[in-house]
Amino acid sequence: MSAGLIQLGLRFLIGGTVVSFFAVLGEIFRPKSFAGLFGAAPSIALATIGLTIAHDGNAYAAIEARSMIFGSIGFFCYASATSWLLMRFRPRTLTATIAMLPVWLGVSLGLVFLFSS
Amino acid sequence: MMIHARFSAMKGIRPHEWAVRFLFGGLCCVAAGIIAEHFGPRVGGLFLAFPAIFPAGASLVASHEKKHKARAGFDGTMRGRAVAAVDAAGAAIGCIGLAGFAAVCWLCLTSLRSWLVFVLASVAWLLLSAGFWLLRKSRLLHKRHARIALPIRRS
């Protein structure tokens, strides 16, 4: 098995475990608005930055972390818009959360290109 | 409102719900790695803050609330969606902490030991998220009496 496949497998296992852990924290804490904080926990980052450092080095991981700030701003806009949509019009939750994903992509990519140029 | 942990809520999580979360989480981490390899760390880094589990998590929150109300003989569809909206508002506050986590990693990864950066970044995430949540709650307390109860329809 190639080193690349082993790394992808590791990413999958570690990622699945860390994300599940934060999802459980989100289930057990009350009130729900506090539990919602775990929906934006740095689960993917915690799972993958260590592997990125081991594979590509600290400088590469630092560049990824800088872009992660833009991704967080995109996530903030996405979560705020989703919350407003659900509260105002009460559509199906899965439909609303998936339909609003372009907000995250648009804001995040826009910020990356704005600050890269 | 007091923050508390209700461990009995874990019993309500079905095996397929565990599986969905594990699968989504694992796939998002793999996708983040592949995207970084193809498009470079600037675009790849965005996916470290991808709302990976959020759509599945929010719909499970709504579904649990609906079932909870159904056991009491009510139609909890609208209530479930309102709770999902509250969950999303909480996630929006959590994003401030997420940006703090990223900023600490960005500023410290090239100068400090990796494990120390992870500890500092996690502390930054926790303090910022909890701090802004408390700040928002304290401001909302003044409006509590003016809030209108959500309508619950009997099935």
Profile the largest sheet of chain A.
none
Specify the overall morphology of chain B: globular
Q: What is the string of helix and strand elements of chain A?
A: HEHHHHH
Q: Based on DSSP secondary structure assignment, what is the total number of beta strands of chain B?
A: 3
Helix content of chain B: 55-70%
Count of beta strands of chain A: 1
| Mean pLDDT across residues of chain A | 91
Poorly predicted runs of chain B: none
Q: Structural class from helices and strands of chain A? A: mainly alpha
Oligomer kind = heterodimer
Describe the protein.
- The complex is a heterodimer of chains A (117) and B (155).
- Chain A is mostly helical and 117 residues long.
- Chain A is built from six helices and one strand.
- Chain B is mainly α and 155 residues long.
- Chain B has a two-stranded antiparallel ribbon.
- Chain B is globular, with a radius of gyration of 19 Å.
- The two termini of chain B are 30 Å apart.
- At the A-B interface, helix 1, strand 1, helix 2, helix 3 and helix 4 of A face strand 1, helix 1, helix 2, helix 3 and helix 4 of B.
What distinguishing features does this structure have?
heterodimer, A: about 120 residues, mainly alpha, 6 helices, about 85% helix, B: about 160 residues, two-stranded antiparallel sheet, 5 helices, 3 strands
What is the gist of this entry?
The complex is a heterodimer of chains A (117) and B (155). Chain A is mostly helical and 117 residues long.
Give a topology summary.
The complex is a heterodimer of chains A (117) and B (155).
Chain A: H1 3-28, E1 29-30, H2 32-35, H3 43-56, H4 58-89, H5 93-99, H6 101-116
Helix pairs in contact in A: 1-3, 3-4, 4-6
Chain B: E1 4-5, H1 15-39, H2 41-44, H3 54-71, E2 74-75, H4 77-108, H5 114-140, E3 153-154
